[in-house]
Amino acid sequence: MDVISIILYFLAGGLTVSVSILLANSGNTMLSGLAMMFPSVTVVSYYFIGKSLGSEVATASIKSTIAGALIVWLPYMMVMLYLTPKMGLNKAMLFGILTFLIIGAVWITINSKYKLI
User: Fold this and answer.
1) Cα gap 117→109, rounded to integer Å
2) Mind listing the pLDDT tens digit for each residue in 48-63?
3) What range defines the domain where residue 110 resides?
4) Three-state DSSP state, 28
5) Gap between the Cα atoms of 43 and 68, Å rounded
6) For the chain, which has fewer Cβ within 10 Å, the N-terminal or C-terminal residue?
7) Is 87 found in the same domain as 41?
8) Is 27 helix (H, G, I), strand (E, B) or coil?
């Protein structure tokens, strides 16, 4: 991995976070939420995966991202949505991240055994 790639990853992630925080500070939570979903990291990642490893590997990565979004990320977000008003943001994030990690580990184990994706 070259330094230019690492700098692009850093800028893409940092820009997305900065824009979402600025939008939230301005009171526009809808745009802030959409900014957090902007695919800056995936665009840069898929570009470099495709460039260095080819379209087949990029396609496999895209399939994994879609499965991960449905199987791992969606439950994480649902835990965050449910627990934040009940426990506060910090505790909800802890439980959300634990949910993400546990479901992710189970998904990786199942997928490794049964080759679903």
Assistant:
1) 12
2) 899 999 999 999 999 9
3) 63-117
4) coil
5) 16
6) N
7) no
8) coil
Q: Report whether pLDDT(99) > 80.
A: yes
Q: Which of 11, 19, 23, 115 is nearest to 67 (CA)?
A: 115
Tell me the backbone φ, ψ of residue 99, rounded to 5 degrees.
Answer: -60, -45
83 Cβ contact partners less than 8 Å away, ≥ 6 residues apart: 91, 92, 95, 96
Burial of 19 (0-12, 13-18, 19+ CB in 10 A): middle
Give me the number of domains the chain comprises: 2
HEC letters along the chain:
CCHHHHHHHHHHHHHHHHHHHHHHHCCCHHHHHHHHHCCHHHHHHHHHHHHHHCHHHHHHHHHHHHHHHHHHHHHHHHHHHHHHHHHCHHHHHHHHHHHHHHHHHHHHHHHHHHCCC
User: Residue 68 — very low, low, confident or very high, per pLDDT cuts 50/70/90?
Assistant: very high
Residue 42 and residue 67 share a domain: no
In a domain, 58, yes or no: no
**CB of 59 closer than 8 Å to CB of 50:** no
